[in-house]
Amino acid sequence: MSQSIEVLNLRTQRDFQYVIKMENQMKGLRTKFRQVEDDRKSIMARNFQELKDKMDELKPLIPVLEQYKMDAALISQFKEEIKNLSAVLTAIQEELGAYDYDELYQRVLRLDNRLRSCMGKLTCGKLMKITGPATLKTSGTRFGAWMTDPVASTRNNRVWYMDSYANSKIVREFKTMDDFVAGVVSRTYSLPFKWEGTNHIVYNGSLYYNKYESNIIVKYSFETGSVLAQRALEFAGFHNMYPYTWGGFSDIDVMADELGMWAVYATNQNAGNIVISQIDHDTLQVLKTWNTEYSKRNAGESFMICGTLYITNSHLSGAKVYYAYSTKTSTYEYIDIPFHNQYFHMSMLDYNPRERALYAWNNGHQVIFNVTLFHVIKTDDDS
Questions:
Q1: Higher pLDDT, 79 or 214
Q2: Fewer CB atoms inside 10 Å of the end CB: C or N, the chain?
Q3: Could you give phi then psi for residue 2, rounded to 5 degrees?
C-alpha cells in the first residue's frame, strides 16, 4: 500500500505541473481574447494560427485532468483504509502489551501444573469396555507379536515385530508406526537365544522374552545388543505344559501396566492355575506373587491394567473378558466384557499403558483395540 501511495504521489506532482502550465496558458489566452476584442479584424488575422496552436497544446491536458481526479479519489480511499488499519494495529499492540512473554509463560506453567494435578487425582481405572479393532497391517504367519515401548518418551514411536511363536531369533524394528504399516524396516536384531510363545514386551528400551524350552526370562538390550539379565521363574511350566487355549508354547506371559512389569504363568504347586508375579525390570527378581484359581489352560489370553489381571475365556470367535483378579485386594470377580475377534484367532493380546490400548495379533493381522476405563477421583481426605 505504501508503494502504491508513493507512485500516486509522484504522478500527482507531475500532473500538478501540467495544471500550472495550463493555468499560465489560459492567462495568455485571456490576454489574446482582449486583443481580439480591441481590434478583431487585425488581431484575428494575425493571431488565429497562434490560437490554434495554443488549443492544440491544451488538448493533451484533458485526460491528465481526468486521471488527476481519479487519483485524488483513490488517495482519499487509501488514507481512510490506512487510518482503519492503524487503529486495528494499535488495538493489537495494546492487547499484546498487556501480557509480556514472562507472564504468558507463567500462565502456561500454572495451567500445566493444574492439569498434572488433575491427572494425579485419577486413580488406576477399572476396565469397562473394549472397542475396535483397528487393523493396521496384515503380515506374517498366524502367530506372532508386535509392540511399542510403554515407558518410552512420546517422541519415540518405534515398533518391534516378532513373527511366529518358536524357532526364531529375528526381531525387526520400525522407526515409526507409519513405517511399520508401510513395511519400512529400520533395523534387524538377531537374538542370542530363540524365543517361545508370543507374549514378549519391550520395556524401557529392552526386550523381555521367554527363552526357548525353558522357564527363563531374558532381558535383551537393543542399544548394546547384549543380554543384560536372565532369570528362571521358579516352578513355572513351559513348552506347552500350561499354555493358553491356543497352545503355541504360550506358557509364560510377560506384560507391563501402569504399576510396572509382571509375569503370568502356571505351576504344579498351584494345580495348573494362573500365578501372577510382579517383577523388577532391572534384575528380573520376583517381588511378590499371587495365586489365582483360574486354570491357565482355560484362558484364551490375559493382560494387566492397573494391577488387575483380565483373562479372556477363549482365543476364538465369541471370546470375551471373563475373569478379573485384583492384586491390590487379592480378590477376583467374574465379568462379561465382549470384544470383536474380527479374524477369528487371537495369539497375542497385550495392554500398552502409554497408549491406553490393547495390541493384538489376530490371525496374521496386527490390530489395536481401544479400552474404556472407569476412573475414581481421589480427594484430599483419601489416604
A1: 214
A2: C
A3: -60, -40
Judged on CB neighbours under 10 Å (0-12, 13-18, 19+), 328 is exposed
- Can you give the pTM of this predicted structure? 0.69
Chain CA centroid to CA 297, Å: 39
Burial 221-242 (b: 16+ CB within 10 A, else e): ebeeeebebbbebeebbbbebb
Report the alpha-carbon distance of residue 18 to residue 319 in Å, rounded.
95
Residue-level pLDDT at 44:
57
For 228-255, what is each residue's pLDDT tens digit? 999 999 999 999 999 999 999 999 999 9
Cell numbers that stand for 175 in this block: 522407526
Q: Are 132 and 360 in contact (CB under 8 A)?
A: no
Q: Which amino acid is at 273?
A: N
Angstrom distance (rounded) from CA 35 to CA 329 = 124
Span 206-232, pLDDT tens digits: 999 999 999 999 999 999 999 999 999
Question: Which triple of cell numbers denotes residue 15?
Answer: 500532473
Rounded CA gap, 250 and 296, in Å? 10
Q: Which residues touch 21 (CB under 8 Å, ≥6 apart)? A: 61
